[in-house]
Design goal:
Elements lengths: L14 E5 L7 E7 L2 E10 L13 E8 L18 H16 L10 E10 L4 H22 L12 E9 L2 E4 L3 H5 L3 E8 L4 E8 L6 H27 L2
Parallel strand pairs: 4-5
Antiparallel strand pairs: 1-2, 2-3, 3-5, 6-7, 6-8, 8-9
């Protein structure tokens, strides 16, 4: 099939990550994946949820929201106290993905908040938010070590995410909105740089798909995620 932006089925969208987007945040990035644009900002507070008090362990959590004109038509601004179900699901995904690669005992009783605000949405916002949040988090951790707030890097591996899917019986990497909206199979894959899977979200929109197809989708995702790892490394090296 002919993709909208001229990519081959196995090519990811061009991705850029810019750092220090917000002066007051401990770490912040603007990630651009094709036409999708998201700001990811880190804040650190010297408290933890009640269930972690006196444990010596920290916590990482995320909030995700879409600005009213991030989409083709205006959507109502979300309340912080009552986010939409989709936003709740995405922010939980971001939080648990980052916790999976972090030794929370090494940050002490601190909470790391990661705010992901979608400026423009053209598919893959949750995967872009995870990929950008990793860079913002690592930047914040580096500054904590430099300022002697913590001694050791608690992040155990890189983390990135990408979408794959089946559209018109063809397997595609990194779907834009139009492709995602008509996909027969839609899958989001979160993975470490050791190719360990953190989470897979896969849905058959029209008919079930086989284990062999699942493996084909995962293998294609690996190619796209490796591309994102290189961008992350280059971005962090150039800060």
């Amino acid at each position: 099939m002919q993709r909208i932006d001229g990519r081959s089925n196995s090519d990811p969208r061009e991705t850029h990550i810019s750092t220090n987007i917000q002066e007051y945040a401990e770490g912040s990035v603007l990630i651009e994946v094709g036409s999708t644009k998201i700001i990811c900002a880190v804040s650190i507070e010297p408290t933890v949820p009640l269930f972690l008090r006196s444990t010596g362990k920290g916590w990482i959590t995320a909030e995700y929201s879409m600005l009213p004109r991030s989409t083709h038509t205006r959507t109502n601004r979300e309340s912080v106290d009552r986010p939409k179900g989709r936003s709740q699901e995405i922010q939980r995904l971001i939080g648990r993905s980052l916790r999976a690669i972090t030794d929370l005992s090494l940050i002490g009783e601190k909470t790391i908040y990661i705010d992901c605000d979608v400026l423009q949405a053209d598919g893959g916002t949750r995967t872009a938010a995870i990929t950008g949040s990793y860079v913002a988090l690592q930047h914040a951790i580096d500054k904590m070590i430099q300022n002697n707030i913590i001694e050791n890097n608690p992040i155990k591996s890189q983390l990135a995410a990408i979408s794959v899917g089946i559209v018109e019986d063809e397997i595609l990497l990194d779907l834009c909105y139009e492709e995602d909206s008509k996909a027969d199979v839609d899958m989001n894959i979160v993975m470490t740089n050791n190719h360990e899977i953190v989470e897979i979200q896969g849905t058959a929109e029209k008919k079930p798909f086989s284990i062999n197809t699942t493996n084909d989708l995962i293998n294609l995702a690996v190619k796209g995620i490796d591309y994102l790892f290189e961008i992350q490394k280059t971005t962090l090296t150039n800060i």
